[in-house]
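Q&A log
Question type: sequence-to-structure
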Amino acid sequence: MSPQASLPNLLQRLHLGAVAWLHSWWRLLHFAVLMFSVALTPSSYGRDKRPVLAAHLVADTAPNLAWYGVMSALVSLVLIRIVVVTSLSYGLSRFALEMVVRVLVLELIPLTAAAFVALRTTLPAGLEFSQGRSADRQVTEQELHNDFFPRVAAGIFAVWMLAAVSCVLTLILAYLSLYGFTPWALTGYTRVVGQVFNPAVTLILVLKIVFFSLAVGLIPMASSFYFGASYRNKVTHGLSDMVRLFAVILLIEIASLMGNYY
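Response status: OK
Response body:
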């Protein structure tokens, strides 16, 4: 095939790829709007729907909270020790606490919490749920309320809970590692932490966790909503969900870094 003949084919493939890419993001946006509309509907929290919602919240949060709590505590202790020893060796011990808070609480914990929930819960659950659905069947309003919304809400809530508990646990471990079991350093500790968590930084941290949770909760279930049982015959959709999810998480992390340090 001549280069002149292959150029139109290449352009056509690029065009089809771009259209498919835009279409996938449009479907994700449409699914997000549907879920927000369901979340704002009072009937979604009726007496008959609360047990299902509560069951998903507990099932997706409790096991992850135990495993992630232990893992984050061990990693936090190791990183806190590394930061403290490095700061002492360079004569920068007065900056050790601020470095610990910025590296762990502001950056690593929200990122790892979102990745942990995605890999352990939402991505596998989205694939498993889609395999039990009939292909090419219109989703009813009852399914939106009873099947999709509880799973999306559970993924979002799990990220919130893991990030909040791990941030508090890391702050406690940082105090104990730096000052030991004494209450006399609490005033200086809270002053340094308060200087780090100014209103702008706190707002960026909250927004980052919220957007992380929305990505983790919505993206895996969007594929189940559109593909149904055909999803299991297209392994590439599982990989594309993972790539899309972590691309969104990376973009959110980059935006938060720019907001905090530029």
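Response note: Confidence is low (pLDDT under 50) at residues 229-234.
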